[in-house]
Amino acid sequence: MLGLLLTKKEAQEIEYLLKKELEELLLDLEDKRIDGLVRRAMEERYKLVFRLYGRFVPPQELSKYVRKSSKQG
Hints:
Layout: H1 8-29, H2 36-54, H3 59-62
Helix pairs in contact: 1-2
């Protein structure tokens, strides 16, 4: 485990960057043309960024970026 000390402004900037990355990933993951290895890599990245973002924001804010279930029978 690593620790990191940030100023308020630095934390806000990281929060902003993570939020924008989540928005991009969610948009790209909705694209049905992306499949296979690329999709799996994007899903792994989404999970990592989502967990990081969760360290910076309250649960209400985090819930905005929960993926909708895309499993269709």
